[in-house]
Amino acid sequence: MKIYRNILLTIIFLTATAAFTSLLAQTSIPKAQPTGKLKGVVVDPGDAVVVYARIVIEGKNFKRKVKTNEAGEYEVALPIGQYEIFAEMDGFHSSKRRKLCVVENKIIERNFTLEGVRQDVDHP
Known about the structure:
It is a single chain. By secondary structure, the protein is of the alpha/beta class. It contains 1 helix and 8 strands. The strands form 2 sheets. Strands 1, 4, 7 and 8 form a 4-stranded mixed β-sheet that branches. Strands 3-2-5-6 form a 4-stranded antiparallel β-sheet, with no helix packed on it. The model has no long low-confidence stretch (mean pLDDT 83).
């Protein structure tokens, strides 16, 4: 009786393994989405780097924020497509929005200068 049970369990295991392998073979694995890179530097009106400035990148159904590093630099990989980008930092006026097109395997450089120190009451 024990032998029949082991044979039955082996048959079930082999059938399940074959079905799973067949299912895996039919499932398409998505390719990695092609990307390009965006990088740059954010400075103030005196050309001093702005540490931890926010870079806002917006596209169709897409929004990402990254921060500059201790050298005022940023770098981000993005899916290919059309975007608007701007830089902002507390105490400064936001930069102008710029349009750009990210192309596969290309590096786009966009530098920003944040203008003037904000002194309005509503500014954080």
